[in-house]
Amino acid sequence: MYSSWSNAVKLAIFGLIVFPFLIQPAAGQNSEPIREIIENSAASSSFWSFQVRNSSGDILEEYNGESLIRPASNLKLVTSAAYLDQLGPDFQFETVLYGSGEQRENRWNGDLYIRGAGDPSINGEAYDDPLFLFQRWYSILDSMGVEVINGNIIGHDGYFDDVPYPRGWEWDDLSYYYAPEISALSFNKNVVDLEVRADGEPGSKPSITWFPFETPYVQFINEQRITPGDTSFDESYRRDLGSNTIYLRSTLPEGHYETEPLSVHNPSLYFIDTFKRYLQLMGIRVEGQLLLSEEPIAWNEGGFTELNRHRSRPLHTMIDRLNRESDNLYAEMMLKTLVAERYGVPGSTELGLEIMKGFMNDHGFDTTAVTLRDASGMAPATLLKTSDLNRFLVDMQEMPYFDQYYNSLSVAGRNGTLQYRFYNSSITNNFFGKTGFMSGVRSISGYLNTSGGERLVITIATNNYTVRTAVVDSIHQQILDYLYTRY
Fold first, then answer.
1. Which domain holds residue 416?
2. C-alpha Rg value of the chain to the nearest Å
3. Residues paired with 306 in a beta bridge
């Protein structure tokens, strides 16, 4: 009977038995339209990697999916999930004001201690007034009738180690708000908010002001110059590393207004320095010094009076900030908090990354291929596989904290880092995701609700591009538009 079969059938059976891979559908067999979008673009010479799955985890589209990529801030999709998982959505940071000594009439005879615990949210984005905590503490002291503190203000920041940056951050980023020093006491995101007004004649210097209350904690060297009104703005800011001397060398067209948050050195000292200046502005004189301590203190063993305990909002609200606005400070401070909470030792980036790798291993990442240098994705040496990240996003749908995780993502055309992307696209309001950016790297990952009612899980990474970032963004939009219509 076998000899009567056609040659075509015989070849098919032979292929099935001997070369089964010849007739199996390749992963990503529908990827040709996306490849054409890329290959016909101005960024075709860049390295592209993408993977698309349905909500059940089946691969629908793929190109270089098993490759290692620099994810940039797409790494926060992993770290934010780890924080929800390891600390819990309802975890709260606690910053405590203690008095050591006693009150006699209108004087506090002794020191004030501020116990830091890694809260990144003591700022004006989490609360209406960035000085809210200092206002509260002043009100407590004022209600006690305290007018003079004849001791020191001591900031205790031993909850974290004293290493201010993760390994691998680029030095020319360190003057800016997105690469601040990390410390257990944090105020105003560890930056001063500079305002520049080109309100003079061309050739003169613009005027500057800064928050908080033009503090002398920083020194600005204003070497900026006003240019004619038809010229362009050229930004130049640089803080001398290890100091709070900041050089301003921008050129600004006449009438231009510019704001820039610039990082400070030694944020713990900045915290207590600002607190002291606030008290003195409000009429409470501080006669002692400003000191920092990292030594363990037995806060409950007498000698300390708890004056106020500030509890932050729940962690899941901070994850909103971390993902939606891609906040590097939140990412790095929470990483160190993982260590301090788990091991009871000063939080460090290195131990935090070991916890991260364990979490990634539990969720199927090939951790032998993963390189981690930070929690935020700022370090160019951070590497992972596209396929691992994409599969991880599928797995997250089964986690008990998924709703909070999903709602922390930016919505296309609506908010966060996606507010001004995709607003003229079919995926407006239909893509919930996370962007990533650094020099030569643009990535985007998340969940797309398609025209056919499916939820797709998408990871797209573009590495080593030399065209304008807007060109890469346009290609990403074409790919997502295609996927929205195709499925």
1. 32-90+314-486
2. 27
3. 98
